[in-house]
Amino acid sequence: MILRVKVKPNSRTSLLIREADGSWRAQLRAPPVDGKANAELIALIAAHFGCRKADVAIKSGASGRMKLVRVNS
Fold first, then answer.
1. Annotated domain spans of the chain
2. What is the reported pTM?
3. Which of 5, 13, 37, 71 would staple 30 via disulfide (CB 3.0–4.6 Å)?
């Protein structure tokens, strides 16, 4: 499945929330430096859907706030 995720780095807590329009919002504690926020996003999505981190990949938007994330479950 493909998820449309809006990312907000440097938050107080790490959360993954489903929006009313079907997209997702991820609040991440990690800063957007050296891929730390992307790594935390992958771990957060894998934990939420109960799959391995290797099954989650950022399809597009790796350097922006809007990302398309592929989840193989």
1. 2-71
2. 0.94
3. 37
